[in-house]
Design a protein that fits this description.
Shape: globular
Structural class: alpha+beta
Distance between the termini: 64 Å
Order of helices and strands: EEHEEH
Strand order of the largest sheet: 2-1-3-4
Oligomer: single chain
Largest sheet: 4 strands, antiparallel
Number of strands: 4
Number of domains: 1
Strand content: 35-45%
Number of helices: 2
């Protein structure tokens, strides 16, 4: 087992939250980072480090904003 450092970017705090996890391999650490990311809608990303080296970052999905044309069309449509 290896020790991984997870730095969680959370919109509620000004500094990342540090969590240590033990995992047999990098793929399991990435799965754990994804689990942590999904624990709260306030989690924006999780950086995973091992041995002083950044291995990867998982990020929360972003909702796609409506296209500008859709917004304009909606406002110009007559109400019924």
């Amino acid at each position: 087992m290896q020790t991984y450092e997870l730095y969680i970017e959370d919109s509620r705090y000004s500094v990342p939250t540090l969590v240590f996890v033990m995992a047999a391999m990098d793929g399991r650490a990435k799965a754990r980072a994804t689990e942590v990311l999904l624990q709260s809608p306030c989690h924006a990303s999780v950086d995973t480090w091992k041995g002083g080296r950044l291995l990867f970052t998982v990020r929360a999905g972003r909702r796609q904003a409506p296209a500008l044309g859709d917004v304009i069309s909606a406002r110009l449509s007559p109400s019924r």
